[in-house]
Amino acid sequence: MLxxxxxxxxxxxxxxxxxxxxxxxxxxxxxxxxxxxKYNEIINKLKSVDLKSANQTFSDFRSLKxxxxxxxxxxxxxxxxxxxxxxxxxxxxxxxxEIFVENFGSYKAWADDLKASGMxxxxxxxxAYDWYGQTWFNYLGDAQNTYPVWGASVVLALDxxxxxxxxxxxxDRASYIDAFLANLDWEAVNKTVRELGxxx
Length: 200
Known about the structure:
Radius of gyration: 18 Å
Oligomer: single chain
Helix content: 40-55%
Strand content: 5-15%
CATH architecture of the largest domain: 3-Layer(bab) Sandwich
CATH superfamily of the largest domain: Iron/manganese superoxide dismutase, C-terminal domain
Shape: globular
Distance between the termini: 35 Å
Number of domains: 2
Number of strands: 3
Strand order of the largest sheet: 2-1-3
């Protein structure tokens, strides 16, 4: 059975990033905390929902199950996103640099692909490792619960919903993506890669 979640406290450096304001971060974190609360609310309602009324057209059970995927996506995506922000950005070091060179040709080629993906996505972009194909790719999704690949592990997430940048950039998403790249904590990304046991 699923257990209640608790909001993560992220590193203080996310509040003093260049190009992504403290106000944006504070409001963005409220949204993340809301996903945690809704996730907990949903799993507790599932404990007492009428299973016999389950129906593919409409039922409380179906609605709760669908909304659970959106809530958990909102939690996990934001945890990846905030975990690797608050860094110095720039050229990566360590295993992630090797991954970019061997799988994309260079860091710049990866960043160009990420930016184009970010301009195309309606919700999220993820750098993920596909365990079946043993490949790295920038995937995009249009909602919290539309991650498109089974058997892939996310190591980096770019939020392209307007709430991530509107207060700072209005409609200028491209400048927000540049700021995102300029504030990445590459050691946090490297740590995620190492913890997953992924080779380059």
